[in-house]
What we know:
Elements: H1 2-25, H2 28-38, H3 44-47, H4 49-72, H5 74-90, H6 92-98, H7 101-128, H8 135-161, H9 165-174, H10 178-190, H11 193-211, H12 220-223, H13 228-231, H14 240-269, H15 274-277, H16 280-298, H17 305-325, H18 328-342, H19 345-354, H20 361-370, H21 374-387, H22 393-413
Helix pairs in contact: 1-7, 1-8, 2-8, 2-10, 2-14, 4-5, 4-7, 4-20, 4-21, 5-7, 5-11, 6-7, 7-8, 7-20, 8-16, 8-19, 9-10, 14-16, 14-18, 14-19, 14-20, 14-21, 14-22, 16-18, 17-18, 17-19, 17-22, 21-22
Amino acid sequence: MHKTNTNKNAIVIIGILFFVFGFVTWLNGTLIPFLKLACQLENDIQAFFVTFAFYMAYFFLAIPSSIIISKTGFKNGMALGLLIMAVGSLIFIPAANARSFGLFLTGLFIQGAGLALLQTASNPYISIIGPIESAAQRISIMGICNKVAGMLSPLILGAMVLKNAGKIEAEIGKATDPAIKETLLNELAARVITPYIIIAIALILLAILIKRSSLPEIDTNAEDSADQTQLAKTNIFQFPHLVLGVLCLFLYVGAEVMAGDAIGAYGRQLGMPLDETKYFTTFTLLSMLVGYIIGIFTIPKYISQQNALAISAILGIIFSVAVFLTEGYTAISFIALLGLANALMWPAIFPLAISGLGKFTKTGAALLIMGVAGGALVPLLYTTLKDKGIVSNQVSFLICMLPAYVYILFYAVKGYAIGKKSS
């Protein structure tokens, strides 16, 4: 009974962390149009360096994060990650005052570094704190915390920094006096300071609470020391299902960020006003929330993790083709529906990929977190293809999405089992 209560407490604490992940991560959808306007960026390629800087931090910091967690333990690693995120948030103050896009990107990279540490600790933690076959169910609960926060963050930040965005954009465009234009841009940039001070304070307080919490430590080495099949393994790359899972997660995160953060850019490309497109991310996250609720009630009671992943991939393929074949708000609706397709992918991919790793769990989790770099590269490919005029907006979107979902379907059907011994 005590262990059950401890696990419930741990799930609540990790749920709070996932709320923080979602709130900070999905601010990017609002920051892209905000920084494009405030820093007077020339095109979407430059604007999407917001996601590039944020998600590439995962690639560079994931392995160091696993080393840090091995020394500090899960709980202290999570607290440290929150403090690093707070530092990244505070960098937004000088960035806004100087209206420096480079400083904004630095702050985002540091935020991403803190999140890499948090994700490297919390994802395997929530996966192994209970039965691995129900890990997708627990991660789905975490996903609800994440996406509820994600739905709120663009609404809150959008209301604060992009209030009357269309009017401000028009005034800046009409300003012929450089001094007046500079004043308008400085006033716009300053709007971001207060929200990020509040975020930094909240992160610091949460780090203190995590440090003092009753979150139990888990020794993955001790837990799996009796598993003879894993004792023979000497290298993390001797687990093909993990390596394939890293690529799967890379493509999934790229598709998720496209559906969540690029939906606004897609709408703008169709001529929709900024006052509307700034809220599009919320529609995608609402769709994801529905998917998570479905996952909680169906996994593993009615459907296995791998079957949920296969169904999700098929939906992703259908909706991606539908985006290509439609226009206007119908196309935007199908992009938002991709959130439903994406919802159960992370909850399924992560536990399937780390299953049976034993003493290699922390390193395997770090490699998977490196796959989050897909959120940096796939959206940048999308904007490059369309803004350089290589292909149309619709074709560019399809190129980035369809192959990703086809590979995810392969992993769900076959890839997750490659290299595993049948029981």
